[in-house]
Structures are given as structure tokens and as C-alpha cells.
Amino acid sequence: MSRKPRQFSFSGYLHVSARGSRRQILFEDSADYRFYLSMLEKYSCETEITINAYCLMNNHIHILLRDKKGRISHLMKKLGVSYAGYYNKKYDGAGHVFQDRFQSEAVETDQYLLAVYRYILQNPQRAGICSVFNYAWNSYMAQYDGLSFVDASDIVEMIGGEEAVRAFLL
Q1: Helix crossing, 162-169 with 110-121: angle to 10°?
Q2: In Å, what is the CA distance from 113 to each residue of 62, 63, 130?
Q3: Over the stretch 138-160, which tens digit does the pLDDT of each residue have?
Q4: Taking a C-beta distance cutoff of 8 angstroms, is the pair 169, 140 a contact?
Q5: Is 34 within 8 Å of 132 (Cβ atoms)?
């Protein structure tokens, strides 16, 4: 049976997720997380895709992005291939690192955009790891540091500013 085509997003916003093959650990140490984020930054710039939020958990990832030019498959292929090469070399592995192809869901309303934003950032809190505000591998702090490739400015403005975002995520 052939797979369904990707859902087109009229707004350009997509919630993307991917899981480790057989739910394996994707990120063994801090260097792994940093490598993935450096590739996310590099390839999002190359593909002209805006990253609005992310959360890297040990065996899966979530990304909220805005893709105005339909390049999501290019971004995720580049990320998957570069990370698999890195991971397999570092851990003496072979083959697929990610399970199946990535999942993507169109985000068409402001209400759903805010729900996805909250869902992604609250992932470590819901998993019982730590609060949204203390997790090193989500984009909460990065969106305010002025150095990050993350651009959540439209969402932060929609919520009502930085303090309102903090209350929104509690």
C-alpha cells in the first residue's frame, strides 16, 4: 500500500515529529543534542524554513516550523541523513536511526498554533523530567537570547509578550 501524500499547510505552519528507530535513544549525551541543533540551524537557513519551537527528547523530537516554500521534506532529509551519519559513526552503528519517515501535521488556526507551541515546549514537563523553563533541549530560553535561529516572535506577540508566555506555559 502506498503512503499518503504530505498534508499541505495553507498557513505554512507544521508540527513535525520523528522517533528513534524501534524507539531507540537518539541523543546519548549533550554533544548529540548540540550536533542535531547545529544541523537544524544550518539546514533551516538553507531551506528558508523558520523554526518557531523545538523540543529534543532522548528518543524523539518535536519541531514547530513555518515552511512558506514547501521545502519540509528537504529539511528533514538533510537532518536525518546528517544525524544518522554522525550517530552511526560515533556509536559504531549502521542503517536507520529514525523510525519510518517523519510525521507532519498542518497547523491552520491560531488556536491550534498556540496549542502545538505549548505541547512542544511542555514535553519534558509532561514526561516528568523537569519544568519547561529548566529543560536544556527545548527552545524556550533560546527564543529570547537574541543569538538563536529560533523565531517565535509572532507567537510570543500573539500570546502577549514574554511574561504572558511564561504564564501560558505553566
Answers
A1: 70
A2: 14, 12, 23
A3: 999 887 776 678 999 999 999 99
A4: yes
A5: no
